[in-house]
Amino acid sequence: MQTFNIAVIAGDGIGREVIPEAKRVLESVSTRHGVNFRFTDFDWGADYYFQNERMCPPDFLGQLRPSDAILLGAVGHPRIPDHVTLNGLLLPIRRNFDQYVNVRPAILYPGVQSPLALRRGEQIDMVVVRENTEGEYSQVGGFVYHEQPEEVAIQTSVFTRRGTERVIRYAFELARQRNRKRRVTSVTKSNAQGFTMVLWDRTFALVASEYPDCETESLLVDAAAMNFIRRPESFDVVVGSNLFGDILSDISAIIVGSMGLAASANLDPSRRFPSMFEPVHGSGPDIAGKGVANPMATIMSVGMMLQHLGLYEAAKNIESAVASVLAGGSARTPDLGGTNRTSEVTDAVVQKLTL
Ligand SMILES: NC(=O)c1ccc[n+]([C@@H]2O[C@H](COP(=O)([O-])OP(=O)(O)OC[C@H]3O[C@@H](n4cnc5c(N)ncnc54)[C@H](O)[C@@H]3O)[C@@H](O)[C@H]2O)c1
To answer: Are 114 and 122 in contact (CB under 8 A)?
Structure first.
């Protein structure tokens, strides 16, 4: 039987509630599809920080490296500054494992109400492709006169031609593979940021010329934010920098119903390193411990993981089961207007696994 080694970091808050549910779905898929998942759990995150003053041990990358994939819940705790949790675990994994593409699909499933008043029959089915290793999140900078009245802070964005080109190319390949509108929208702010974003625009035009079968559009990020609300049905694949992709994918997540439905994949397409799969949402401190977090974002992230591992039938099975539960309306957590608990939603998904 084929065996996959999955490194699991549940993390903090609702991350610890949704990860066991996703593992339950994987266990069910495993018997149905004749594959074996060997989980290795890592207790890294806020509690580890309170004991060790760091989010994870120094050799954390070495411990994760042998796995076939990494499954992550969320990190973040109200008593730890967010830049510590993010830079102490998540961002180094993305950077060091060269997970340069962050794929964030946003699909409005039948049975789910968008907060937008869409015109009849209008569909939202888009993917935000976010550059995931450089740009505004490169962590280059520093303080001068630290914590003095005359303090200065400098933070530099780093955009490389290689980094920009490879993520844009991924977006075009994805548009071909999805074969829907074959439309790639590039998002920048090159009117105000005349170096990094101009490099991005030029690179986009160059790569686009290799894909004559794809329609292209270039938007400034403020216009893109507006158009995600005004004409969400027009988008297919949207590609942007680390910061812009991060912000826009929260908009795309909420217009398809809930943060609790937004899945994501941090991919190293070259497959030199393990890729990482996680819900878009954070640790949800406002609902943590109540047992009402929607597990679907994590379950669908697991679906993306199976797709990446080449288990296409199993991935399809999970996506169809989630879509079927959403369409039937039988089990819903409060974020979708229901009264069900996290585990009841997972039960409903497991029951709908057909193969
Ligand atoms: N990838 C990550 O680990 C990640 C991502 C974003 C935020 N964070 C961290 O998480 C903490 C909280 O951040 P935040 O409040 O801005 O974002 P959040 O995503 O945790 O929560 C935003 C809102 O969405 C709701 N929500 C999120 N996931 C949900 C789910 N599965 N089901 C139902 N409702 C859900 C929350 O209740 C909250 O009202 C912070 O410490 C932040 O740094 C981590």
So the answer is: no
The reply to whether ligand 1 has any atom less than 6 angstroms from the CB of 284 is yes
Name the residue of 277, 283, 290 to mutate for ligand 1: max ligand atoms within 8 A of Cβ: 283
Q: Is the CB of 83 under 6 A from ligand 1?
A: no
Is 49 catalytic? The answer is: no
How far is residue 46's CA from residue 157's CA, in Å, rounded to a whole number?
28
Walk along the chain (355 residues) and give the pLDDT tens digit of each residue: 899 999 999 999 999 999 999 999 999 999 888 899 999 999 999 999 999 999 999 999 999 999 999 999 999 999 999 999 999 999 999 999 999 999 999 999 999 999 999 888 889 999 999 999 999 999 999 999 999 999 999 999 999 999 999 999 999 999 999 999 999 999 999 999 999 999 999 999 999 999 999 999 999 999 999 999 999 999 999 999 999 999 999 999 999 999 999 999 999 999 999 999 999 999 999 999 999 999 999 999 999 999 999 999 999 999 999 999 999 988 999 999 999 999 999 999 999 998 6
Q: How far is CA 333 from CA 75, 115, 168, in A?
A: 21, 16, 36
Using an 8 Å Cβ cutoff, are 127 and 149 in contact?
no
The atom number, within ligand 1, closest to the CA of 285 reads 12
**Which amino acid type is present at position 264?**
S
